[in-house]
Write a structure and sequence with these properties.
Radius of gyration: 60 Å
CATH class of the domain at 15-153: Mainly Alpha
Number of helices: 9
CATH architecture of the domain at 15-153: Alpha Horseshoe
CATH topology of the domain at 15-153: Serine Threonine Protein Phosphatase 5, Tetratricopeptide repeat
Structural class: mainly alpha
CATH superfamily of the domain at 15-153: Tetratricopeptide repeat domain
Shape: rod-shaped
Order of helices and strands: HHHHHHHHH
Helix content: over 70%
Amino acid sequence: MNRTMLHVSCSSIGTLCAQILFFLLIAHGVSADEVVKKNREGIEFFTQEKYEEALGAYRDAQLEVPESPELHFNIGDVLYKQKKYEEAQEEYLKALLTEDALLQSQVFYNIGNCQFRLNKLVESIDSYKKTLEINPDDMDAKHNLEFVRNKLKEMAEQQQQQAQQQQQQQQGDEQQQQEQQNQQQQQQEGQEQQEQQQQLGEEQQEEGEEQQQQQAQKIEGEMTEEEAQRILDALKDDEEEVQKEIRRKQSSGKKRVEKDW
């Protein structure tokens, strides 16, 4: 939580703050009563959570004393409640111009809270440390400092875990991709081998058919000497049989002459 806002009148930061404001008003020739009245109105509105009205009252008071660190601090508190952390931090930084050590420690504390809300954790740690340098007994600053440190440690561990998970996921994806590539390569090699075997079979089949054709052509177009001699012998035998048949027929046609004496 943010600190309870400082009351310029005196109640939260002691009589020293009231004296600082009083002398500041005197130096600028400003009526202290009017500034204190506006500041009290702002405090009352802030307590009622009427932040726009509180901001208006503080701005009116600031017209008389624009450099007042206390008013910058109170305006910063209103902006913080409105979750305008950047603007609140700017007002708190202007409040650091005070010479009041207690106010400075509280300003650093609230700046640390703004930085935490803006997710500037490392910067918030520095601000809490500055608070403790001025006021070592500030238990809220000690608590917040430890809280932010644990938060950073937790975030670092989560980031490391996420990095490991991403690395494992990447390795798993790469392994899966490699396995797919190997599988595709094996399929391609198997397909190529199958095509080669099929092509070899076709070549062997073509070669066998060619050999059969050549053998058939050899049988039809060529004749060995033995085969030729057997054919000639067969033809000669046929011719002799034909001559015998012719002679037989001629002999059977002649008439025998018998002598009658």
